[in-house]
């Protein structure tokens, strides 16, 4: 009898595990009907792990990163034309020496090892930009590119790098008005906390006070350069921290999910994208068995620092693990750290109009 009971228990455990696995599988393979659609909620399939993305000014082009393989190798960038969603891989020119601004840079990365994790843009004149990319392939660094946009699309030329301190790995990067940058470090060596580090031309890395959180992740700088917005992944929060050395008290809001990246919407609000599952499920499904991870996008009002959910869905065979959302025309484009696709959502499908204040917030400021 005990043998039968044990057998039934084992069968029940197996059935429960199989049910859970089936619920979470498949995991954003960039396949299925959403890849064939061109309107409504649909997907742009065939891109590898487009974790972060941004529009190149007012041009017809979006650039996404490619995080590469499991060992970070063979990543890079994609250029996507907005009108017809045609895309191609971008091969940067790595042949030039580093500019004097990056005098400590040891040289260009090995192209086959380069990956692009978080990306950020500094606009210049005449459809020219400086692009910053967090790189894990071959070294932990911020790689810097000159971007020129023409009718044929963007062309990228490597201009230098900023190597991270030893044993530090960055997640997101954002430019500062003074020509410097800030980056998030999700976990410092030998401690459980993360931090935001600041770098300026001619100087080294310094810690930004008040940014030691549990899993520093997405990062934005306010338009006037006086404030940081930092995602605390482990504790479901977005924080506002002063950059100007003022006594303005920090603010934070609980989103109810783990926020990955943040971007500004055209109305000045903040879009935070992340994962409604537990961290254990995200780790298991993102890096071990490749099961599915849900996606949630919230809007944070920078005036009231209240948040409301705009979009939420589970994973399917097309898309899993959303990480970054940007407004492109009348659509929301969402990247992923595991999928072979971008998800494209009409703004009309969101739970509230994006341009309106965040009425009836789901989570309150502390």
TrEMBL record:
<feature type="domain" description="SMP-30/Gluconolactonase/LRE-like region">
    <location>
        <begin position="140"/>
        <end position="272"/>
    </location>
</feature>
<dbReference type="InterPro" id="IPR013658">
    <property type="entry name" value="SGL"/>
</dbReference>
<dbReference type="InterPro" id="IPR051288">
    <property type="entry name" value="Serum_paraoxonase/arylesterase"/>
</dbReference>
<dbReference type="InterPro" id="IPR011042">
    <property type="entry name" value="6-blade_b-propeller_TolB-like"/>
</dbReference>
<protein>
    <recommendedName>
        <fullName>SMP-30/Gluconolactonase/LRE-like region domain-containing protein</fullName>
    </recommendedName>
</protein>
<dbReference type="Pfam" id="PF08450">
    <property type="entry name" value="SGL"/>
</dbReference>
